[in-house]
Write a structure and sequence with these properties.
128 residues, alpha+beta, STM4215-like, seven-stranded mixed sheet, 50% strand, elongated
């Protein structure tokens, strides 16, 4: 839904990483935004949606990997009142919140992996 927006924002603040959506192609210094299941749409407040996203950071510089994920946390956690347009569909983002502290997944082929999970409250903007 808004993966492109999240990737573009992350790329602005961490241009040293190779950014992608849903998969990574680089072997090192990558950032990837994954769409997660999220919560079901609200039954009573029609139109409100609660998608969740995961940022994955991969770097062979273990110290930088930790710093990168903290930069994402500081940037995205508690963002409010945004308007974005994705694929010609306008969305009003009421909030972006981290689901917890960044999580160190561990090392794979000498590359440290970290994740940050966020939940979003948004609504598609309908013309009246």
């Amino acid at each position: 839904m808004i993966q492109s927006y999240l990737k573009d924002e992350a790329q602005k603040i961490l241009p040293e990483l190779e950014w992608s959506i849903e998969f990574y192609t680089g072997e090192d210094n990558t950032g990837t935004v994954y769409s997660e299941a999220g919560d079901p749409p609200d039954t009573y407040e029609v139109g409100y949606r609660y998608p969740q996203y995961m940022f994955m950071i991969r770097s062979s510089d273990w110290g930088n990997a930790s710093k990168y994920v903290q930069v994402l946390m500081n940037h995205f956690h508690n963002q409010q009142s945004l308007y974005v347009e994705m694929d010609s569909v306008p969305y009003r983002i009421f909030s972006i919140e981290a689901l917890g502290e960044p999580l160190r997944l561990g090392v794979k082929d000498n590359v440290m992996e970290w994740t940050l999970n966020v939940k979003v409250l948004l609504r598609e903007v309908k013309e009246k």
